[in-house]
C-alpha cells in the first residue's frame, strides 16, 4: 500500500534496514542504518520487527505527503519534525492520515533521524537487504537517495498510536561527544601517538558521510621508520584509520577493505553516536577494554527490552 | 608466513587473523583454507568473514562467542587443515576485447614497455592471476601475477568515468572494473562478462583465492556475449 509521496527529498534520505550481511567477502559493504539504537526503537514503537526498513534522513529531512492512513515513529537526531505544521513528538508512535504533510524544519541536535512506518518501507530485497547502497546502485529506491516524485509503499502491519519511550531511555545527542574505543588492530604502529589520540579533541570535518567521518585535529603520528600504509586488509564499521597526514577517519558502514593503519575501533554501541555527529561537532575518544564493550552492548539490549515491555502494557 | 597466526582485535565484534606479513600466494592460500573451512563447518557465533591478502576478519556475535574462544577454534583448525578436504582453487576465464575504443591506453602501455600492442596482449593473456581479495567496489579483484614486462604507471589524470568491464593496468597490478566508476588505471581492453550483477545468481562472479586468465575475443564475440545478458 502506498504511504508517502516525496515532495522534497531532503539533503540525503535513503531507505535503510539492519544491513546486508554475508556479502562483505565480495566487496559489498554491510550498509544499513548508522544509528542502530534509534532505528530499532523506531521499529519497536510502530510494532515492526526490529529489522524492517525505515527512512534515514540526514541534517535536512524530507517533505512527505501521506497517501494512506498508518502509524509512524520518528527517532534519532532532532531535525525538527512537523506534522501539518505542528511539532511532531519524537520517540512516540503517531497516527497519520491521507493528505497529512510530514516535514522537517532543521537540525536541533544530532544528524540523522529515522522515520519508521508500521509495516515497514516496502522495496525489493537485493542480496537479502532493502538497504540503499548508492555506490553499488542497489537497494532502496533504484539504489539511490529519495527524489521528488518518488512514491513509497509500506508492508502489512497493524501498529497503534501512543506508544512512547520512557524519557530516561531517550539518548541525548550532544555536539561535544565522547566515543569509546578498543585499541587496535594496529595500535602497535603508534607510540606517543596513542597518548595524543586520547588527549586530543577532534572536529568533525565536512567530509563526513555513511562511508566515513574525516576528523580534524593535531596530527597523530606513527612511530618513525614504520610503513605508512599496510597491505590492504578487512575493515569494520567503527575502525579509525590514520592516513599519513595524521588526521583520523572513522569508518562507518560502506567500506569493506582498506590499506591505512587503524589505531583503534569504536565500540558497537557508540557507532550510532558517531553517526549523530555533524560537521563542526567535537569528538574525543576514551579507551575501554573488550569485556567492558560487551557489557555496554548487553546493557543496550536490556534497554530495548525495557522499552518493548513498557509498550505491551 | 608466521609460525603461528597473529590475532588482533577489530572492535567488539571482529577478530582479525593474520597469517603473514607479505603479499604471497602461499599465505593467501592459507587464508583461503581457513575461509573455506569456516564456510563448510561454521563456528558457533561467527556471522561473516572477509578474506584478504594475508588475513581474514571474523565477525562474531558477542552474545554467542568471544575472541578467546575463537582463537582456540582457529588454532585447532589451522593444525588440522588436511582433514577439511579443501577443494583446489578454480581458474575462471575472462574474455576480453583488447584495444580500440575499449582499450584506449593499449598503445601507451606498449610504448612505455618498448613492445607492440600485439605483444602486450600476448603477455597479458599468457598469465594466470591469483585473485587475492575482492573489495574497493563490489566484485573488484585485487590480482597478483602481472608480468613485469608490462608494468605501467597510473594515468596522471584519472578518468571521471571508467565503464564497467574495463580491464586495466596500474603499476604492478592488473584488474577489472566491475561497475562504472572514476579511475586512473591504463585501460587495455574490456570484458562483456558482468563481474557484478546484483540480481544475478551469484551476484558477484569472482571468489577470493581462485585464479583467473584473460582470453582474447573479437568484437563480434564481445557483442554476442553482451547480448546474452540482455535475453
Query: What's the structural domain tally of chain B?
Result: 2
What is the subunit organization of this protein? heterodimer
Share of residues in strands of chain A: 25-35%
Q: What is the C-alpha radius of gyration of chain B, as a whole number of Å?
A: 20 Å
Mean pLDDT of chain B: 95
Q: Tell me the number of helical segments of chain A per DSSP (H or I, 4 or more residues long).
A: 4
Overall number of structural domains of chain A: 2
Count of DSSP strands of chain B? 13
Low-confidence stretches of chain A: none
Name the CATH superfamily assignment of the largest domain in chain B.
Cyclophilin-like
CATH topology of the largest domain in chain B: Cyclophilin
Structure description:
The complex is a heterodimer of chains A (313) and B (231). With 313 residues, chain A is of the alpha+beta class. Chain A folds into 2 domains: 2-169, no CATH class; 176-300, Cyclophilin (Beta Barrel). Helix content of chain A is 16%, strand content 34%. Chain A is built from 4 helices and 20 strands. The longest helix of chain A has 23 residues, at 290-312. Chain A is globular and about 65 Å long. Chain B has 2 domains: 6-84, 2-Layer Sandwich (Gyrase A, domain 2); 91-230, Cyclophilin, CATH 2.40.100. Chain B has helices at 25-40, 67-79, 106-112, 117-126, 219-230; strands at residues 6-9, 14-18, 46-51, 55-60, 91-98, 129-134, 141-144, 159-162, 166-170, 173-176, 181-183, 186-190, 211-216. In chain B, the strands form 3 sheets. Chain B has a 7-stranded mixed β-sheet. Chain B has a 4-stranded antiparallel β-sheet with strand order 1-2-4-3, with helices on one face. Chain B has a two-stranded antiparallel ribbon with strand order 8-11. The longest helix of chain B is centred in the N-terminal third of the chain and has 16 residues, at 25-40. Chain B starts with 5 loop residues before the first strand and ends with a helix. The mean pLDDT of chain B is 95. The interface between A and B is large, with 41 and 48 residues.
